[in-house]
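Per your request, structure below.
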């Protein structure tokens, strides 16, 4: 680090300044004191937001952040996610171009203007930043930035950490990886061992090692982004021929009355040097030129389901030198064509007319992020096909007569089911310790240019089938029963969620092609691993039904809190439903109300050509009694499940007691290890979900909290009356904490694990929120756990230190959720407005006239402030709560013992309706009766309040009419 940076850090803040020995007696350290060498994208995002907040509090004036890294590493994505939370100014170095030769050329950046703009903002002056138009290839104007509009400015660009800028930056962030590493991995795979990694980097990214990489080592936060391409938020396309020309009658639909955007592209496909003309087009590299910009994507990655084309967001910008480097390495331009596009958008769906010069045809393309919305727009416009699912590349290759192989032929059926078990490998991520790197010298290669998956083939594995019957002689007639003997061969490895999602959809398509309708899928795994999320994403792509095994709970079992027991499922009804689906009969699937613990109806399901796939997801979806009736078995591990294990390891290490991942798992997830994990190893597809529920910026929930009184009718006015639904929940939140964790005298929410008891169910609330202004930004993560997991935490030394009893009235319409919480011993209720759209939440708060009354305090803080300071014991438990906490702990431990005894007994004794009464039964029945009385009181209160308000409004209208 040069002297200018050191001087800047010491004088005006930054990480190194706060590394000085603290004179405060506080035991809590600064976020900026302990930043690791390099972290994941999610963790880096979290650290960056917390660092910005800390610096903004401790230094006067503007906080400046620089985010640098190679093209396609994820810089802009990180900057946008941080800006959505902090609400800061965002300056892109793309607008400071002065040359048009290559975007990564150092001489093409106007550093003088950028430095002047930053200095103006730091000195409290407003400034004008340039705006560059890439179509016109010139600077077209400027944009004003107010100096104190947010107190934070982010500079994003390849050279954001250049020496001319570093002395002006408080926080320096380097992002590497992403599609940048993915391209290196693919080229390394295509070329083989003939070229070193450094040679490939110098060929493809000639400016990286010379002008970009040296600056990245000055970063305080170093992020290694493993994201490549994802079908989590895919683009859905419908394509058909159009008789209308883009230059035709402007009054013609769909462009009449709308502002159309016009663009011209040149699209090129590069074939690997070692591939023949009969290579799979999925292995080719696509380069799109738009004006002076070049965008690269790795192959024709897409899924075709019926008439929908589903593509991931997988393009990133490169310089012209990258294209030249690929050609120099031996890649050949196989196909090149021009595409002229005219498009309009209504916000949800865009409609384009695209003309391909090589084909001489014009096509209409509808695009959107929601499958149903795209289909509905096509119906509204009266477009019904015929739909085209082939890509432009495929159509051009057909006209040229170039042979290709998209799908390899099926392997021979020599394998038998006797050796099927030998092909199955246990899912690796269950107990693997994260491969963390703490020092630069620990890395086998520099962290800035190490492909994260260099040993993994860039092309996806292919599904194969095995048969239990001997192969048929040539010319024999295929017996229909032969299709029933075909089974998927399990994948030998485990995959991340993105790759696993694509493989799961391809497996469904393979079964459809080889065995026909219907296809029944089972997704199993521990609670919080991501089963439901994966199932819904698969259903969005395939367009099918998802059925949760929770729908098959037996009411009598649930009343005894046996949610995690296999015997709690109505296996007879489940088997009947699967058999009906298999034989194309209408069937009735149960609907279970988890709040009341009862089955409250059925929904009819029928397999058809439009819905030939059904997905069952649940903890026991891969149990032998279920999976043998399914076509595809998928196991998911990780997610919140793994996060809890890591959290326990972190807490134990803080008190000086290290525990292995295996020790933690066997304690907090005994039911999983004994009754769930043994079934997962048989899965056809094993997926490891690396999602971090606390640190991830994905699907954050924006919350506004206030204790201002709001009338019931006012709440209803901000919700959509056609979609509104309401419910009442009574819950107890228990806070568990390890003794010995450093504290400041106040019980901190971040030091505790919260467990919610609601309607007899236990849920882990992982919510370490970011507080910014009036908003609480928290992840949408609450997941059910077994009562044995809670008992496991107690066995590991966690102590119940606080609790909150409350009842919540919940009103929602799908976009906004309003929750009115009545907390025990707190006089006024608290109102929370929640949603994923920050602007919609803010607008709802303004409509309810809550501005100026917001608080970001947690309920734990609110309760703690109301309790006398002198009543706290050395263990952190307040005397006023000690008796109730002891009662709850005894309830948990006793109930866990009963569950474990039931699991160890025979299935006959489990299903027996008669059992001896115990003191615990009285406690449970007492809690249930109290909850039911509260529910009845709340219901009566709501009805009376609604009647009163209706009478009042009617009387007011009557008086107004008389006047």
């Amino acid at each position: 680090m040069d002297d200018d940076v050191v001087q800047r850090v010491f004088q005006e803040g930054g990480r190194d300044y706060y590394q000085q020995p603290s004179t405060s007696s506080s035991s809590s350290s600064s976020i900026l004191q302990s930043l690791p060498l390099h972290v994941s994208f999610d963790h880096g995002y979290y650290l960056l937001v917390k660092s910005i907040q800390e610096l903004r509090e401790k230094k006067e004036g503007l906080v400046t952040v620089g985010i640098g890294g190679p093209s396609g590493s994820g810089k802009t994505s990180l900057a946008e996610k941080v800006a959505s939370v902090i609400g800061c100014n965002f300056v892109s170095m793309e607008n400071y171009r002065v040359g048009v030769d290559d975007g990564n050329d150092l001489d093409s950046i106007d550093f003088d203007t950028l430095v002047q703009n930053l200095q103006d903002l730091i000195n409290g002056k407003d400034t004008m930043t340039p705006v560059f138009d890439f179509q016109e290839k010139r600077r077209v104007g400027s944009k004003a930035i107010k100096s104190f509009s947010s107190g934070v400015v982010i500079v994003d660009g390849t050279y954001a950490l250049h020496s001319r800028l570093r002395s002006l930056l408080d926080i320096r962030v380097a992002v590497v990886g992403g599609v940048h590493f993915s391209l290196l991995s693919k080229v390394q795979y295509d070329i083989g061992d003939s070229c070193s990694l450094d040679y490939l980097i110098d060929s493809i990214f000639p400016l990286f090692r010379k002008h970009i990489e040296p600056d990245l080592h000055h970063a305080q936060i170093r992020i290694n982004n493993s994201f490549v391409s994802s079908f989590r938020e895919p683009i859905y396309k419908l394509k058909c021929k159009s008789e209308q020309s883009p230059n035709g009658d402007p009054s013609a639909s769909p462009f009449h009355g709308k502002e159309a955007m016009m663009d011209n592209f040149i699209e090129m496909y590069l074939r690997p040097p070692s591939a023949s003309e009969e290579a799979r087009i999925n292995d080719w590299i696509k380069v799109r030129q738009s004006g002076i910009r070049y965008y690269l994507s790795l192959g024709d990655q897409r899924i075709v389901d019926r008439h929908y084309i589903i593509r991931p967001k997988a393009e990133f910008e490169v310089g012209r030198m990258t294209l030249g480097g690929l050609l120099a390495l031996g890649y050949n331009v196989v196909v090149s064509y021009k595409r002229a596009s005219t498009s309009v958008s209504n916000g949800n769906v865009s409609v384009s007319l695209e003309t391909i010069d090589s084909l001489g045809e014009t096509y209409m393309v509808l695009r959107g992020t929601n499958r149903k919305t795209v289909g509905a727009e096509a119906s509204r416009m009266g477009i019904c096909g015929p739909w085209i699912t082939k890509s432009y590349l495929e159509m051009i290759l057909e006209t040229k007569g170039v042979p290709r192989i998209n799908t390899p032929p099926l392997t021979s059926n020599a394998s038998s089911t006797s050796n099927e078990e030998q092909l199955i490998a246990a899912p690796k991520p269950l107990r693997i310790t994260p491969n963390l790197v703490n020092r630069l010298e620990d890395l086998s290669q520099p962290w800035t240019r190490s492909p994260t998956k260099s040993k993994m083939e860039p092309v996806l594995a292919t599904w194969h089938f095995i048969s239990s019957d001997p192969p048929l002689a040539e010319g024999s007639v295929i017996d229909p029963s032969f299709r029933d003997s075909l089974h998927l061969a399990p994948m030998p490895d485990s995959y991340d969620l993105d790759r696993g999602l694509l493989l799961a959809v391809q497996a469904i398509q393979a079964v459809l092609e080889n065995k026909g309708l219907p296809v029944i899928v089972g997704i199993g795994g521990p609670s919080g691993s991501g089963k439901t999320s994966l199932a819904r994403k698969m259903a969005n792509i395939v367009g099918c039904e998802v059925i949760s095994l929770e729908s098959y709970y037996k009411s009598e079992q649930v009343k005894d809190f046996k949610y995690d027991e296999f015997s709690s499922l109505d296996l007879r009804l489940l088997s009947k439903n699967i058999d009906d689906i298999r034989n194309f009969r209408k069937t009735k699937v149960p609907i279970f109300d988890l709040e009341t613990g009862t089955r409250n109806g059925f929904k009819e399901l029928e397999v058809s050509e439009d819905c030939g796939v059904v997905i069952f997801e649940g903890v026991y979806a891969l149990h032998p009694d279920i999976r043998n009736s399914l076509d595809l078995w998928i196991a998911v591990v990780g997610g919140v499940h793994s996060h809890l294990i890591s959290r326990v390891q972190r807490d134990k290490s803080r008190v000086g007691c290290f525990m292995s991942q295996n020790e933690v798992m066997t304690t907090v997830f005994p039911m999983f290890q004994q009754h769930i994990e043994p079934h997962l190893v048989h899965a056809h597809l094993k997926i490891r979900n690396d999602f971090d529920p606390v640190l991830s910026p994905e699907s954050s929930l924006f919350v506004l909290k206030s204790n201002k009184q709001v009338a019931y009718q006012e709440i209803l006015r901000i919700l959509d009356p056609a979609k509104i639904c309401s419910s009442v929940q009574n819950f107890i939140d228990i806070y568990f904490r390890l003794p010995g964790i450093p504290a400041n005298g106040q019980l901190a929410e971040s030091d505790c694990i919260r467990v919610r008891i609601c309607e007899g169910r236990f849920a882990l609330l992982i919510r370490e929120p970011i507080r910014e202004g009036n908003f609480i930004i928290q992840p949408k993560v609450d997941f059910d756990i077994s009562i044995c997991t809670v008992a496991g935490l107690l066995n590991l030394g966690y102590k119940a230190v606080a609790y909150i009893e409350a009842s919540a009235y919940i009103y929602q319409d799908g976009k906004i959720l309003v929750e009115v919480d009545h907390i025990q011993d707190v006089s006024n209720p608290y109102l929370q407005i929640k949603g994923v759209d920050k602007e919609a939440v803010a607008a709802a708060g303004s409509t309810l006239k809550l501005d100026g009354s917001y608080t970001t305090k947690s309920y734990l803080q609110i309760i703690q402030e109301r309790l006398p300071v002198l009543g706290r014991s050395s263990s952190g438990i307040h005397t006023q709560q000690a008796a109730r906490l002891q009662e709850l702990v005894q309830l948990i431990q006793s109930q866990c013992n009963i569950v474990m005894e039931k699991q160890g007994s025979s299935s006959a004794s489990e299903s027996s309706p008669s059992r001896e009464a115990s003191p615990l039964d009285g406690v449970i029945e007492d809690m249930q009766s109290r909850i039911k009385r509260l529910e009845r009181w709340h219901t009566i209160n709501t009805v009376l309040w609604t009647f009163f308000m209706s009478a009042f409004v009617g009387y007011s209208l009557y008086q107004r009419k008389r006047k």
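The mean pLDDT is 79.

Regards,
D.
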